[in-house]
User: What shape does this take?
Amino acid sequence: MKTNRKSAILLGVKSAFSLLLLFLLTVVLHEGAHYIAALMLGIPIAHFTWFDPSYFAPAFFSGSTEYTIRMMIVGYAGGLVTGILLLAILLLKRAWFKQSLYRWLLGLYVAMFGFWEICQGILEGAFHQAYISNATNLLFSSTHYIGYASAFLGMFLYWLLMPRLRELKV
Assistant: This one.
């Protein structure tokens, strides 16, 4: 009984730490994709922060209504690149995520963040002004509710497509 408790605590700690690291990784990938897309498209960057990069370009970032195709691509790039990368890892390494309960949970987190990031990419590219104005209000914004729904969809689909929990080793 004591070893089961230790195993459960260890699983919880490893899982929470992995969730935090995966969250930080998605932030870096998301913002890095914006940065690389801006460089590739020749959009000069005024300054870059983790939250919202500012570009030297007439664009919707500063409240302007001018919306160029290059800026649209930069807006979509962060979430779509990150989400597609996470879901590709999940598909290509499917067998790895079936080996233990810890790995199954890690796959659940990857699916959750993958769907969340794809949703964020679409929201940030298509509805940038609403996305930015709601970005600081994590609990009560319409764009975040849509993101939460997409994350739950990712977790639900992962749960449906992966083996049952009782088939896995702790």
